[in-house]
Amino acid sequence: MSAASLKQFQEQQAILQRQYAARALKDADQMEMLLDNFEQGQPHVLVELRHLAHRLAGGSGVFGLGQLTQPALDLEHSIDNCEEETQIRAKTTALADHIRQAAMNKS
Fold first, then answer.
1. Domain extent for 17
2. Is the CB of residue 50 less than 8 Å from the CB of residue 79?
3. By CB distance 3.0 to 4.6 Å, which of 3, 45, 63, 85 could disulfide with 20?
4. Distance between CA atoms of 69 and 53, rounded to whole angstroms?
5. Do 66 and 20 form a contact (C-beta atoms < 8 A)?
6. How far is CA 21 from CA 73, 80, 101, in A?
7. Distance of CA 50 to CAs 6, 10, 15, 29, 90, Å?
8. Which Gene3D superfamilies match (predicted)?
9. Which CATH number is 61's domain given?
């Protein structure tokens, strides 16, 4: 691979990482909204919350945000294991905080 091709690849990769970080930020907001709905007696939103965590666990490493993988897995497992609401809240908040920190580092 030529130096020019490598540079073009790296630039494209950086663009994709920034786009993923922006999407993850939206996911963080969505997760917090879902958590509020869950706490207001809508347990069905846990399915969507789990889906977001699962997607983040799988995609974050691919897009250079590997630090999100474990917190996303923690939340996903918490939901799968029907942990208490306080545990789900803590893990959702932790993941949202990790997302915001990672996104700031990518901008």
1. 3-106
2. yes
3. 63
4. 9
5. no
6. 18, 25, 10
7. 37, 32, 27, 14, 14
8. HPT domain (1.20.120.160)
9. 1.20.120
DSSP letter at 67 equals G
Q: Going by C-beta distance under 8 Å and a sequence separation of 6 or more, which residues neighbour residue 24? A: 56, 60, 65, 68, 99, 102, 103
Q: What angle do CA 83, 94, 53 make, to 5 degrees?
A: 65
**Packing angle of the helix pair 69-80, 85-106 (nearest 10 deg):** 160
pLDDT in single tens digits along all 107 residues of the chain: 788 888 999 999 999 999 999 999 999 999 999 999 998 999 999 999 999 999 999 999 999 899 999 999 999 999 999 999 999 999 999 999 999 999 888 76
The encoded tokens of residue 20 equal: 């993923």
Is residue 99 exposed (0-12), middle (13-18) or buried (19+ Cβ within 10 Å)?
buried
The model scores a pTM over 0.85: yes
